[in-house]
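Re: the multi-chain job from yesterday

Posting the exact lines I submitted so nobody has to dig through the queue logs.
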Amino acid sequence: MSISVLDALQPAKKPALIVLVLVFGLFVGAWVHGKYFSDRSPIQPIDFSHRIHVTDNEIPCQHCHIYAERTPVAGVPSVSKCMGCHNSVPSVRESPEILKLATYWENREPIPWIKVYDLPDYVHFTHKRHIKAGLACQECHGPVETMDRITRVATMKMPWCVDCHTEREVEHGRDCWTCHK
Amino acid sequence: MSKISRRDLLQYIGAGGIGVAGGVLYGEGVQRKVELLIPQVIPPEDYSPGVATWYNTVCNQCSAGCGISVRIREGKAKKIEGNPVHPVSRGRLCARGQAGLNVLYNPDRIRTPLQRADRGSENTAEISWDDALTTIGSRIGRLKIEGNAGRIRLLTGRTRGHLDELFAQFMNLLGSEHYQQYDFTYPSALAAANKTSFGTDVLPYYDIENADFLLSFGADYLGTWLSPVHYSRAYGNLRQGRQGQRGKTVQVEPRMSLSGAAADEWIAARPGTEGLLALGIAHVLVSSGSYTGNDRDEWSSALQAYSPSMVSAETEVSEDTIVRIAEEFGASTASLAIAGGATAAGTNAVASIVAVNALNHLAGNLGKPGGVILNSAQTFPAAAGSSPAGLQGALDLVAAMQAGDVEVLLVHDTNPVFSLPDNVGFRQAMENVPLIIALSSFHDETTVMADFILPTNTYLESWGDDVPDPGVGFPVTSLSQPVVAPLYDTLPVGDIILSLARQIGGELPIHMPWASMEEFIKDRWREEFDERMSEGQDQNFEAFWQAVLEAGVWGQPGAAAGGQPESSSSPTIAAIADPVSKFAGDETDYPFVLHPYLTATFLDGRGANLPWLQELPDPMTSVVYGSWAELNPVTADELGIEEGDVLEIESPAGSIRVPAFIFPAIRPGVVAVPIGQGHTSYGRYASDRGVNPIHIVATLMDKQSGDLAWAATRVKITNTGERLRIVKTDGVTRTLGRQILGPGNDHG
Ligand code: SF4
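And the result, structure tokens for all chains:
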């Protein structure tokens, strides 16, 4: 007489399979969400393309993000700034996305852009210092000039910051108080 | 391999589906909340995100005229502080000044022009600025053409600088003489008394900072009197600013104010006799030989009757105290006597204040550091210099309205329906006026009677200039500028007046050609600069203007101000002959004296719509929210009243119901009720809170100044039997034998 464990497990086989399928489903779901619905690349109120502006029209980053080199935040251009140029670009004046821009301007409403890069309030990050240190925008923001819709390329988590500070031997780069005041 | 049954397959699919959905939900759950990145539509000048800019302007929360600095980030006002270079505030600020942000961001602000069909109701309809200005302009224009401009009246709160000038000019050009101001807190009696004593009604500078001995008759200089921020700082210097020398302060008042609590000695003379007490002290100063002026005989015969024994009997202050204070006052190198509060609110207010002024004369304090220093009436740039007309002015206006002599009433920045006794009948009289227009940022008890409401910018969104009154002993003018762009579809009050002038036409726009208040002020400053200051200056006007704008203030420290006060004795002596106040209501029917008092938070009620001020406990009682009536424990015991008993306080003019608060620092027989609460139409934060004691004040006035004698009403008290819990931050005010104050110092 042989006693088979498998036989004893026979009645548990089906529930186990169901759990397996469920767990597999969980991973699939999380992956699908990350790939297609995540906040890494949200759909913006206007389908703005950095590729067209930066690569095709050779506009430097700080032409629009004017505060990057002198304040903590880089800033998004004001609606008046967008219109300042677009008023003199008749070729695309009638395109649907530019019409959206014009509507915001006529209503004197700001464009509700969705934040892609965001740090918690307890992190005292400043663009100014990073630009002064000679970093290119792309080091953190990725190849923005090739992106139509902006996609976040970094985790923006603390290990990511500290790795870079360590690698570049930033002075006080690993002090808590450098970022958390 | 066994075949999977259809049923099993469905189960697997179900499990898979739930799994995927769960995975997506999980992804959604761990993802950060969507945050928006909102750009400016049109960025303000010198704007950098995340970087604060400070702009200097002027506080408008009371009449002191403190200079303030406002911290602006991303075009929004974030914090108000005192302007360090402004000689009135010198970097300090009071709670009302801090709460200026509550004015700007108040959810009850009026955001568009409104029209009201039904007076007294809260229902209004929005209209456009064009419609409002055209309708009002044509009504006023028609009256002017018909030669009936005298039927147009403009009533404002305390207004100084070029806004005052603009109002005056507008009414003049219309052909109406009826531009007047009403402000409950304006010290008309003090101005009138100083005119008698010093020959000028420009308020002098009381140099508390350098005094050694400060004798205050009712003036709560740390809380509400004239310029509390300035005097609080001065008080600090009096106490601790000089090495090895601690100034002494004595406070005479029936209910202990913050200044009374900070004083070395608090004297609760019988209400209404404070002037007499001053004369008693004067008597000792003269009879003891401390006063050596050559008109000494004149004084000694005038003061003959006010011997310490007689004064002591009337005031219920001991003879010893009177003599001791007189000796100290006379012996101090820099002694100073000031008057305000209830002392300046009796039927003999001017006589009492003149008596206090006489002390300064007799002790030789005039024009000296630590004494009374005159301010000059000459200001830069010169302005109209109107001042509020007290109760008499209000009564005249009410009579005119009742007689049907007022066709159009414009009201700005004053709330007479709230801050006048009910008996005056202001609201009822307003019913007789065919057209009432309110220029205001908020609804209140007065604007609720207006047919049109033209919403004004708050002071943080407006241009203006101001000559602080009282000044600081040398010429000073402040400049205010908008620190943020207007939040709503509102206009600066000056711009509304200028638009109306254009609407009305005729010679008005010719004489008032400015497009805005900013242009008007700058124009007038330029004119005066060219006339009075350009010589010997290497500065041009634009540079001067820019510098003043940045500093928020222009001044000439060290420049002689008002010269030596000339206190000629004869008018003073003639004016002191009425040293005791009369009261409304006789003593048998109305055994208690009502002492309404201004609070450092709400003043005359204007601060009650600001939530930060509502939640600030009273500094003396620690009570917060609502109203209360303070009674001495002795009085309360006699009447069997406990804290929280709802009392009916009845004067000959009306009654209020308010919970009792037992307060040891008040004279027995006096009942004190704070002013400020009891609003009915002043927005969400002020509504349903407490009562307004001004409403039951009898309409007695000081004859010489026409000022309301708000401290001259007697009341009776009935315990209604109802109870209300008083909200306070204090637990028990007694030490209960714990010897907290040290051995032998345990009074309770
Ligand atoms: S005393 Fe207070 S409320 Fe009055 S002007 Fe100064 S800061 Fe403003």
